[in-house]
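User: I'm curious what two different proteins look like when written out as structure tokens. Can you demonstrate?

Assistant: Sure. I'll show them one after the other, since each token string lines up with its own sequence. Here's the first protein:
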Amino acid sequence: MKRILGFIFVFIFVVYCQETLAFKIGRPWIKPSIDKGFASLEEYDYFKAKRIFYTCHTKYRKLADFGLATIYYRKDNPFHQIDSAYACLKRCESIVVTSAKVQQKLNRWQISTDSILKLRQLIEYRAYEYASQTNSIAGYEAYMQKYWQSNMIAAATKNRNALAYSQAAKINTAEAYQNFIEKYPAASEINTAKNNYELCLFKEFTFSHNAYVYYEFMQKYPKSPYLLAAEDSIFSISTQKKDNESYYAFIKNYPTNRHVNKAWSLIFNNSSNDYSAEFFESFIKKYPEYPFKEAIKRELVLAQTEFIIVKENGKYGAINKNGNVMIPFNFESIDEFSEGFAVASQNGRFGYINKAGKIVIPITFDDAESFHEGIGVVKKENKFGALNKSGEMVIPLDYDDLGDSHDSLLLAEINGKYGYINHKNSIVIPFEWENAYDFSEGFASVEKGEKQSFIDKHGKLLHPLIYDWVEPFNKGIARVQINEMYGLINNRGDSLLPCVYDIISKFSEGLALIAKEDKCGYIDELGKMSIPLQFDYKDENDVFGIFRNGYAKVFLKNKKGLIDKSGKAVVAIEYSDIGYPSEGLIPVKKKSKWGFIDLSGKPAIKFQFEKAETFAQSLALVKIKGKYGYIDSKGKVAIEADYDEAQTFRKEGAIVKKDGKYGILNISGKLIFDLEFDKISFQDDGMILFEKEGKKWLYLTSQSKFIYKER
């Protein structure tokens, strides 16, 4: 086998030497013709054709070069070499034919400018294919240098650039991208490379991630697209504690940073702002360089302005007591203001506005709660979180439920368990409780295994989980319950009263009604018996027996009377019903009629009314023959009993109803508002709310005018 291969090699070598020698001396070793060369080429006799083309090269250079280019181009022969094909064809293109004989042969073998161009394009494309198979930067650049006229130069350039960019991206450093940018400025990847260069430069320079290196970066690269990111990082790093001291230090150290105004806003919002003149004065004294002093003045004016939420054409806004529109009617709902902000909604989403009507926290949440202790709870996609007044999400939307802030802690729920977190989203009390409630006076009630107790701010139980129910502490005292029996404890964990009582009411005027075995009395706020269990207990006593202005109603043998705080009966316990003293008279009922007695118990107005209320504005509401009217302190009818319903007089008047419509009387019995309204109710601060045909009107008594009529 080796001998055969050796023979073949010697044969090829001899042929090559003969043809080369013949070509160089211009003297053939046989007498061929150029036509025979092309005939041999058509028969795929490449050895013979190649020898003839070399032999005829001197006489027929253009034809011979075209034939040789064809042989070197074709891949089905041992002479295939694409660069040689291209060299032969370039010589062929450059030869100008002047001989008619040569031109005749060119025509015979269809060698023309078009055929030469076509072959050149084929050679160039095959050379591109080989460069593509190599797929290297050097391969493409060699192709581009040799075949610079090729139609594939653009594709080769694109591939070369893509490879170069890929190498730079793999290294992924500012230096690698910079080298690419300098070497290939026309590459389609140039913009991406520039962007990545800027990013890598930013990351590499600020690798240590401290405020100083970010500041130095800004000084060294003032045109970098990452200047804003550097400013953001300086702010974030400098204010990690999120307290006023760190915000103020940031302002001092970086006065030109774009977050300076935000830092001032955070300082203002984080301060214990009760929106009083004293607060604003102390704030400016502490921060004299605060840049928004005029805004503070406006805040003060707005804070002292009472806003009334009203509706117009289906949208809510707010007016002041002069009826001036303070907040445009742009919202689907507006809650009452709390800590300077109000929850408002648009398009089914919720956010926050200030008293200037400006949206200060975007209306993007599924729900939102009023601010408490500088924190607003929000809901999105069934998860709860909380933000501060600058709109920063200080507690992420990670919780299944979240309560308002109380004592700087928020009740939170995760997977059916409750715990407590602080304003920095740190877990203060673990999520271990089956139910829990907000903190009040330093304690919160918690539940596990259907038993309740209290924990302090460290999660420590005040006493074991033994109670069926507990209520929040009020002035250090809480009612508790075991087996439906009530007791009393204090916030030190002491039992003031054991759980053996049928009822312990809420405290009023320092005393609470207490009942056991159908007898009731009163205890003081230390849990000591102030009035013994000597009166009969009725279910209505827990409301009926509340002290008002030093008096409480009591039962004894199905009769009612009044006692003072010492337990002394100031009105004999002999009436079937009784009211509270007012203007020296007390409404009382004997048998089926009401009358009035004085404070000594003597009759003052005879028992003649179906119903009687306490005196107010020198008049008392009474019911006569199924209708309501008013009498004076002598028992004389001052306003005829002509109304289906009526209320006790206030200084603004008395609301009355007749034939299904409401109006308001003055003490002279004159209708100051006609009987034309569907509903009337007295509001706080001298406001009266009227409703008519589904629309609401607001009347301000101090100005004697309607300040709002819904449209």
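Here's a second, unrelated protein for contrast:
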Amino acid sequence: MQSNLRLRFFVLLGLLAFAASASAYVLITDNGRTVKWTPGTVFFDVKVGTSRTLQDGTNFSTSFLEAEKSWNAVIGSVQLSGNIEAEGAPTQKGDGYNQSFFAADVYGEAFGTDTIAITTSYRSTAVQGDGTYRRLESDIVFNNARTWDSYRGNRQGTTIDFRRVAIHELGHVLGLDHPDEASPVQTVSAVMNSHVSNIDTQQSDDVAGAQSLYGTSTSVNRPANDNFANALALTLTNNAVTVTGANNYATKETGEPNHAPNEAGGSSVWWKWNATASGSLTVTTAGSNFDTLLGAYTGTSVSALTQLASNDDVQSGVIRTSTITFNVVGGTTYYFAADGWNGEWGNVSLNLTFSPSNTAVAPTITSQPQAVTVTAGGNASFSVTATGNPAPTYQWLKGSTAISGATSATLNLTNVQSGDAGSYTVTVTNSAGSVTSNAATLTVNPAATAPTITAQPQSATVTTGGSASFSVTATGTPAPTYQWLKNSTAINGATSATYTISSATTADAGSYTVTVTNSAGSVTSSAATLTVNTLAPAPSSGGGGGGGGAPSAWFGVIIALLLVTNAVRTVGLQASNKP
């Protein structure tokens, strides 16, 4: 009630200030006592507008939400949240809602000459058990007579960065005051100083102040089922179940839907249930000790859910727990989110009551098994999704032969070998009928084996200008690649089993090897030597042409050899003619 509230104003001035470094955050106090929020989610109605695209790609509303996120990343027991609403200023303060908006004045009171934004805040009059007051409501008013945008970095003249101002004002909402207006004055680098500066986000001093009130993001124990992906599984006994838990320190994920119309919540926890048959399901939060929101969904990710039912209050303003009833289909997984109105926390009681349908429905396959390719020794998996009433059973087959024990929606094969390759199907059956899936092929590739050289390259001798070729023969799975080397240096482009030099020169002489490689390993061949001999140059002829010239030197040598040969023959004849 109004009589239990105290109002305080926090003013941000539009003057440029420069700050030195120190550590001196200042907390908001009243009557010497700190003022802070009860652990939970502080929810804002964001009414600053969405029509204009700003320098950083945001609009004013999404820029405000980004400012909230920057605080959420560094604090624990309180989280800021917001629901974007139509642009406009509320007509009265102290209405129990936290709001951010542009206005020409502050609920009828003029802005100061240099004032660009004001936070109004209410607290309880009662002192809490920890010796503090509790913050109950905060409104942030931005001066619409100023020029606004959203950007990072240094100030841009008289154009004010909306996000850094929102960060500053949200610091007041959390309980931080102006260090540069403390007594004594603190000189510190901080976004919480009273004048807008080139600082565009929280500094270490700002973070330390907020964490002194609410701890760090790692210092709190969030519920195990805080996120959609960690939804706790429910099992019904005699078609009913009641589970209990708590949503203390729970959060709202990016992309998570509202769990009741026009209610952002902010502290949801998740459960899931696989319907064993078709029928009607009623879910309630009766027994919970706070104002709940409740939603039911199908889907596989928090940002792509189909909402089936939702509710805020059983009786608006009277019975503040929630209830939903909807039809379910056997074999389908359903998700349930229990949230707190305005981010409230407390003990959650979730109650499910199921009424099976008497009408049997034959199975329908909604997701077929897909082909799989693996390497021998690996694992393979096939899955099918089907609905039906009652919940169907499964039998996997290879070819036309049933696989023993393969009776779930997923078939897992381990240490697959070539004999496992083939066509796989699954037959889905209930009392109303059966259906067989499309065939999915399992392809098994041979296991990798390291290369082995079966024929080494051989040495070669050629004459300059001749052709030289080296070859290697190797086996391995997968098929290996090749790299030839000369004197241990890789030869560019020499990547086949044969390396050919089409016109050898003496520079090509040397030691040649080849490295053979695949995914299982590599091996280098023995060295093969290439010897390149030079061709002797042809002798030049002697002087004079025609018959009158003197015979060349080499011709003279031949004549001499012929004369010697004749002489020998003559001697031989003479010897044979002696008496």
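A detail about the second structure: Helices lie at 60-72, 162-174, 204-214, 553-577.
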